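Run log, item B.
One chain of 244 residues. Sequence copied directly from the ordering sheet:
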Amino acid sequence: MTPKSSPSLKWTPSTPLLIFTALFFPVLIALGVWQLDRADEKQQMETLLNERQSNAPVAINGRALIDPYTRIIAEGEFDNSRLWLVDNRQRGGRPGYEVVQPFILSSGPEVLVNRGWVVAPSTREELPVVNLVAGRQMLFGSVAVVSDHPMLSAQTDSDAWPKIITQIVPEQMIAGDHTVTEYYVRIDAASVGALRTEWQPINMSASKHTGYAVQWFAMALALFILSIFANTNIATWWRQRKTH
């Protein structure tokens, strides 16, 4: 009896799927690499955050620029005539505002202080009631990184206080010759005037970015395998090969 010939692997291309793979495979790989780059950046930020948070607080006494995440101590008093409510902030899934006020330093300049979060009233027409802090205080906090989102702003058409804004932009909010505008401070929970804080200095951890990268690479691998099976007879070839 003549033995059966060994099955051969054949290329049976599907043009639409090849085009789809050629377009999306490099995109998925690029997204994975981008997430790895972001993970590396966040890892450096986390290392810097841990290092600076372990140091003793630095006194704010002038306009000198202080590095992000640095713990600070400041003496002065809140300016209760000016108060901003940063909209669209949530805690525990509940909508609310972050309360920002100028803090007049004993040395003269002002610095913006984010006092924390308050829950939003039941209707948009209502504003939350914020307890004000009078008199000279010793404030503890950390220097926060100023975000720069193109769709958010510290501008408002209202002349009434408090003013609702969507982003903290110090130079737009209290620009002046006697104002510290290069950064703002997130108050410590133990300081007088602190509301609900629960700060997240880094909005997404390095490990989460790494997890997203793995997902993108897994999708790229799945697309590659699908393309191989769709453009060859590998499934049939493998089954026939096992029977020989």
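Observations after the first pass:
- The two ends are 15 Å apart (CA to CA).
- The chain has four helices and eight strands.
Flagged for discussion on Thursday.
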